[in-house]
DNA sequence: TTTTGAGTTGTTCGA
DNA sequence: GTCGAACAACTCAAA
């Protein structure tokens, strides 16, 4: 093949997907190492081909993240080419226009995306174009993590022990010093045009919170290392405190790599209040482990996005109720902590992890709504919507997944509120109509004395809903439903 | 093949 | 207020 310009090799295409960063990007590094000009491209329809369309919130984040990626590329003398259409067709076209002979990308460890990539690889090969695929989104190679019998893990602890017995994730790569471009740039769509109608009405109230893009991700990690990590073991469950890393959307879109987070966090120590000693940041690294585990499970059990991993749960007597689902989605359940969480989600596209469990438990166990409905809503409204993490989380709460909590573990929304939002600050922030209530009653306004309510300006049933269901009764109903399942599944 | 130990995140009740 | 037991046995993973 003839070179496109004197003294230059054929350009290499770098197909950006869930790796919207310049540093520690193995595909980009590999392309640059070849010494060829680099054509970075993002293909708009590729998420849909991945088996589930990104939700409204996710689209909003993606749009901003792509703008940031384009800026970062331009600082290195490059740019991001935006195209729309079926991935294979777009790549073939672009390869033809630029005389590219190799396309580089990083794997997305999701079943449908993996299948699509196999087809793209085959299709490009037919056109005489090579591909080079790297791992930029997981700490450990999925093929290396297997039981002694060679099978997948279904329990987190042995999975994580196995991961830790493998060699340490390699050090992150630095961003390439320069990104030489082709002699002439191929056409590109304008991001503003493509994303004009990206945010559907359902999640239309979500405001952009956080800073999409690599710079935002790096700043967020720095903030966490300075302000959050030291108190992580004690503060991570407190929605009223900034105790978590808030890296989830950045990790989902690959604005920062788990390797970068791993190495930054491993270098620090954390005070462990239960032991009274300084320890490694193991508690946080385990959270990265859960992310790995979620991808491991999705890879080996691809049907679990819609079907329970424990098959007997297919017969569980869920009660579909559109009105109840809508009340949960709006944050009008009458349980202040649940409503605070759902409103935080709808307002900001994010929810504290502890509260995610509580609202999920309420949907599945108090309302007996199928966990798939909750999973779908989360995918639609979360900026960090991630198929693997979301699937594991919901199946775990519903008790039908890997390493599931026993079904009789049912969160009490009042008790959880008292324990993890002791002053009620989190509820006051997101359920302002209860802000005047003293801490003692803020998690159970229906039990507050009349004079307390009137002084706080709260009229149950008018300014704030009565509990949509009595928790103790709902708990008994859930246990009964679970016992019925056990009987059916038995011999 | 059999055995053994263990399993993210809870709640309630009674002593 | 604090503590341990019960919840219901089951499945997983390794020895």
Question: How would you characterize the overall build of this protein?
Answer:
This protein has 491 residues and is an alpha/beta fold. 47% of the residues lie in helices and 7% in strands. It folds into three domains: 1-135, HUPs (Rossmann fold, 3-Layer(aba) Sandwich), CATH 3.40.50; 138-171 and 213-300, Serine Threonine Protein Phosphatase 5, Tetratricopeptide repeat (Alpha Horseshoe), CATH 1.25.40.80; 311-489, DNA Cyclobutane Dipyrimidine Photolyase, subunit A, domain 3. The protein has helices at residues 26-33, 46-49, 56-75, 87-98, 111-126, 156-165, 191-194, 214-228, 232-235, 248-252, 258-266, 282-300, 322-330, 336-348, 353-366, 371-381, 387-398, 413-420, 425-430, 439-442, 450-456, 471-489, and strands at 12-16, 38-43, 81-83, 102-106, 130-134, 269-272, 277-280. Strands 3-2-1-4-5 form a five-stranded parallel sheet, with helices on both faces. The model is unreliable at 1-7 (pLDDT under 50). The chain binds a DNA duplex (15 and 15 nucleotides) through helix 6, helix 15 and helix 22.
């Amino acid at each position: 093949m003839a070179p496109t310009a004197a003294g230059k090799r054929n350009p290499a295409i770098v197909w950006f997907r869930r790796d919207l960063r310049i540093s520690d990007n193995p595909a980009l590094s590999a392309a640059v190492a070849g010494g060829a000009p680099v054509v970075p491209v993002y293909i708009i329809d590729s998420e849909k081909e991945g088996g589930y369309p990104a939700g409204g919130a996710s689209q909003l984040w993606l749009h901003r993240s792509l703008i940031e990626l384009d800026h970062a590329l331009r600082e290195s003398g490059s740019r991001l080419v935006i195209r729309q259409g079926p991935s294979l067709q777009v790549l073939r076209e672009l390869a033809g226009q630029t005389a590219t002979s190799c396309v580089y990308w990083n794997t997305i460890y999701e079943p449908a995306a993996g299948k699509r990539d196999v087809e793209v690889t085959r299709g490009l090969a037919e056109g005489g174009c090579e591909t080079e695929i790297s791992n930029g989104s997981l700490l450990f190679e999925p093929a290396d993590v297997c039981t002694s019998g060679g099978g997948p893990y279904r329990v987190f602890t042995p999975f994580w022990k196995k991961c830790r017995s493998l060699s340490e994730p390699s050090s992150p790569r630095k961003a390439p010093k320069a990104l030489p471009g082709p002699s002439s740039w191929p056409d590109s769509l304008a991001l503003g045009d493509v994303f004009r109608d990206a945010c559907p009405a359902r999640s239309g109230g979500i405001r952009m919170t956080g800073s999409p893009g690599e710079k935002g991700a790096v700043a967020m990690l720095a903030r966490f290392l300075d302000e959050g990590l030291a108190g992580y073991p004690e503060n991570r469950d407190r929605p009223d405190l900034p105790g978590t890393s808030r890296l989830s959307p950045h990790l989902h879109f690959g604005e920062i790599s788990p390797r970068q987070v791993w190495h930054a966090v491993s270098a620090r120590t954390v005070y462990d209040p239960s032991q009274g000693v300084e320890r490694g940041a193991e508690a946080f690294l385990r959270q990265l482990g859960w992310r790995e585990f979620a991808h491991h499970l999705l890879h080996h059990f691809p049907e679990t996005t819609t079907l329970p991993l424990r098959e007997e749960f297919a017969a569980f007597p869920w009660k579909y109720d559109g009105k109840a689902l809508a009340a949960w989605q709006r944050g009008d359940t009458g349980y202040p902590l649940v409503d605070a969480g759902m409103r935080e989600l709808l307002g900001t596209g994010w929810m504290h992890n502890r509260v995610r469990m509580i609202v999920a438990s309420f949907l599945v166990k108090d309302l007996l709504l199928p966990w798939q409905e909750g999973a779908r809503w989360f995918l639609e409204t979360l900026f960090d919507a991630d198929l693997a993490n979301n699937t594991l989380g919901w199946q775990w709460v519903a008790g039908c997944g890997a390493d599931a909590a026993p079904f009789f573990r049912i969160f009490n929304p009042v008790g959880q509120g008292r324990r993890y939002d002791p002053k009620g600050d989190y509820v006051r922030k997101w359920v302002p109509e209860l802000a005047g209530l003293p801490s003692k009653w803020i998690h159970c306004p229906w039990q507050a004395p009349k004079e307390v309510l009137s002084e706080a300006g709260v009229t149950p049933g008018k300014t704030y809903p009565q509990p949509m269901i009595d928790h103790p009764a709902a708990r008994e109903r859930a246990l009964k439903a679970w016992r019925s399942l056990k009987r059916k599944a038995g011999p």
